[in-house]
Amino acid sequence: MTDRYPPxxxxxxxxxxxxxxxxxxxxxxEIMKRYRKEIAEPQINxxxxxxLWGFFCGDHPMAEAQRRRIQDLGEERIRDMDDSGIDMAxxxxxxxxxQIFDTDTASALAEAANDELAEGxxxxxxxxxxxxxxxxxxxxxxxxxxxRGVTKLGFKGGILNGHTLGTYLDDKKYWxxxxxxxxxxxxxxxxxxxxxxxxxxxxxxxxxxxAIYGFACDTGLHALRLMVSGIFDRFPNLQxxxxxxxxxxxxxxxxxxxxxxxxxxTGRHPNVPKLKRRAWDYLCDNFYxxxxxxxxxxxxxxxxxxxxxDRMMYAMDYPWQFExxxxxxxxxxxxxxEAKKAFFEDNAxxxxxxx
Length: 355
Ligand code: MN
What we know:
Blueprint: E1 20-26, H1 29-40, H2 47-56, H3 61-70, H4 75-84, E2 88-93, H5 103-123, E3 128-130, E4 132-133, H6 139-151, E5 158-161, H7 175-184, E6 188-191, H8 201-204, H9 214-229, H10 231-234, E7 240-242, H11 244-247, H12 249-265, H13 279-285, E8 287-290, H14 297-306, E9 312-313, H15 326-331, H16 337-352
Parallel strand pairs: 1-2, 2-3, 4-5, 5-6, 6-7, 7-8, 8-9
Helix pairs in contact: 5-6, 6-7
Bound molecules: manganese (II) ion.
């Protein structure tokens, strides 16, 4: 049995790899302003947003610190990266990003945020790369923005913050985004949002709605909806990234595969088509996984074992789970030097085309 709370060993001061953190959040001051306005004068009915940002727009010292850090693309972020041993950060728009706003507002905010993030990255090109935000509500404009982000602004993929007003992107109307991602050869990071209004109620009364558990439920559901919809038969080279050690899906791999085979081949549900490959194959070949928020050796090694060392990447989940000592624990993992370098550096360089 592993020690539940082992002391964090000091990090390797001179590791034979760079540490690239792949799920690091940023929000533009304009979006933050709109979150605060929404909390003060609610216009939308999203209990998840109200619960999460009601706290983080408040005056608790932790909320103030997180709010300050998440809007920073300058000295404080660099200092925090230095203090925690992070060489490079893959920065993306924090949750729920623009995905609570109306169609036109959301698209315009995503485009402005992308410009602003690109400017911030340009000041620290050796430390930052980014993912493009988009609003799924206008799928064609989202696809164009993903293309602009990659080809004009230098972004390395796209960021999707969970459901969009309770809708999930397995709906074919949203597929232009995935078509664009596949054509551009870039991944989409499927990052958590709060559970949608349809599912959040039983989580709320015990504060199980956010990163503690609700995020994983909604995001894991979203990933499985994509998989069973046949999206990877339509876009076989599409790559989706899941954080938090895969939102626990790799742990479910055997049973998901067994049951999906049974359901899809008996034709018992009209919305679950028979697919070309098995669930197991899609979860291994169309997904990358990161350790965000899980600075713990056993699940990271499990993922490397069942999915592969070539698909598991490091992430911190800054600023939400900023742990200065985390990389010391992961430097010390009992895995091969090659697997460790793949985890911290090589897989991210390859997937995000970081030179
Ligand atoms: Mn995150």
